[in-house]
Every structure is written in structure tokens, then in C-alpha cells.
Specification:
- The chain is of the alpha+beta class and about 220 residues long.
- It has a single domain (about 25-215), classed as Jelly Rolls (Sandwich), CATH 2.60.120.620.
- Helix content is about 20%, strand content about 25%.
- It contains four helices and ten strands.
- The strands form two sheets. Strands 1-8-5-10-3-2 form a six-stranded antiparallel sheet.
- The termini are far apart.
């Protein structure tokens, strides 16, 4: 039997035409949120942050940079009409994305689980994480000053690539281990909640402001 080391790989050049396809796609949805005044929304986010003493205390205790309402305010759409309008628009976007994902929802639509404000100051980061117990997660972008962080998305297969060599810097986008998406103000991004993501350090002097959310299926 011929040893592996002795095989002549130049013979591969004589192989018949080979078909290579991509399997198990990871989908990312990007669109304009809709008719929401970004200045009004940004002002609302800062006003809420200033008044939310419980949220400020939680951020200080947990060492969370800037401000998030995640652990303090669970009823933004009820308290503030502009967030109610945002949810109406998000419901449409999420329904469209669920259709693209070809989910069989059995006549039970995905529903908003929670929605919260993020204000990330200069030097702040949101470390790598997923959103357990949810189906679709996402963010709409309120203030994205020049030089602020993109959204970093991680290849979900990374933990299984134990002995794989690194990818070429020129590798196709779907082959890259990380993808950086730089949304604009008014954009909404949606992804499946198991997709690991992070916000690298905000290098801008101004705040990076966004509104994030989860949808579940019950």
C-alpha cells in the first residue's frame, strides 16, 4: 500500500469538474427601520437614561460601560409612545426575516420578549455574547458617530475548528471567521439569537446609541 506521504497530489489536476457548495447558511437581515425621527429617538434615549436611577446603579455595580436599560426598564413601549411605534415596525421586519429563514411557526408568530436602550461612551465595549432563550435578536441604530464601533459577528463554527489553519485575509466573506457590519443611523439588523456577537471599543468621542431587542416563540 502506498504511504500517504508518497501520494502525488498533482494528480488532482486531472480530476473531473468538482462541485463545491455552501451549506447551513447564517442569515443576517439589514433594512431601514421605518419612519422614526432619529433625533427624537436619540433625545428620548438620553432622557430615559438620565431618569433611570435603577439602571444607572445596575451599570455601576456590574461595571457596565455607559448605560443600558436592560436590567431596569421592561416596559419601554408602554411608557414611551415612540418605542411603541418602533415595536410595530420591528414586528413587520421580524415577520419578514422569519419567512426568509423558512421557520414553521405553526400559526404562532414570534413576539417581542424585551427591548432596551444601549448608550456606549468613548472607550466602552460590549463583550462577546449570545441571547439565550430567544429566537431572533437585533438592534436598531440611533446614533453612530464617525469612528464608532461596527458590529462584530463570529462564525458559529469557530469552537469546532480545533486544528484548522487560519483563513486567508483575502478569503470570501462567507469564509471569514469574523464579519464586521457598520450600520447607519436608522438601520435595523436582525440575526438568529444563537449567533455570537460583540461591539468592539467605541473609539469616537461621542456616544454610540442603539436599541436592542429579542423575539421569542411561545
Amino acid at each position: 500500500m502506498q504511504n500517504f506521504e508518497e501520494l502525488d497530489f498533482s494528480l488532482a489536476m486531472d480530476l473531473p469538474l468538482t462541485n463545491i457548495c455552501s451549506l447551513f447558511a447564517t442569515r443576517l437581515y439589514q433594512a431601514k427601520l421605518g419612519p422614526i425621527d432619529p433625533d427624537e429617538l436619540e433625545a428620548s434615549c438620553h432622557s430615559i437614561a438620565e431618569d433611570d436611577e435603577a439602571g444607572q446603579e445596575w451599570c455601576d455595580t456590574e461595571g457596565f460601560p455607559g448605560y443600558t436599560s436592560y436590567a431596569s426598564l421592561t416596559d419601554l413601549p408602554w411608557r414611551f409612545p415612540i418605542f411603541g411605534e418602533i415595536v410595530k415596525l420591528l414586528d413587520q421586519h421580524v415577520a419578514s426575516f422569519a419567512e426568509d429563514l423558512q421557520f414553521d411557526l405553526d400559526d404562532k408568530p414570534l413576539k417581542l420578549e424585551d427591548i432596551w436602550i444601549n448608550i456606549l461612551p468613548e472607550g466602552g465595549i460590549h463583550t462577546s455574547h449570545i441571547h439565550p432563550h430567544s429566537v431572533i435578536s437585533g438592534t436598531t441604530y440611533v446614533a453612530m458617530p464617525e469612528g464608532t464601533s461596527a458590529l462584530k459577528l463570529e462564525d458559529p463554527r469557530s469552537q469546532m475548528m480545533m486544528a484548522a489553519p487560519p483563513r486567508l485575509k483575502t478569503a470570501r466573506e462567507e469564509m471569514q471567521p469574523f464579519i464586521y457590519v457598520k450600520p447607519k443611523v436608522g438601520d435595523v439588523l436582525l440575526w438568529e439569537s444563537w449567533l455570537r456577537h460583540e461591539v468592539p471599543m467605541n473609539m469616537a468621542e461621542e456616544d454610540r446609541v442603539s436599541v436592542s431587542f429579542n423575539y421569542n416563540w411561545t
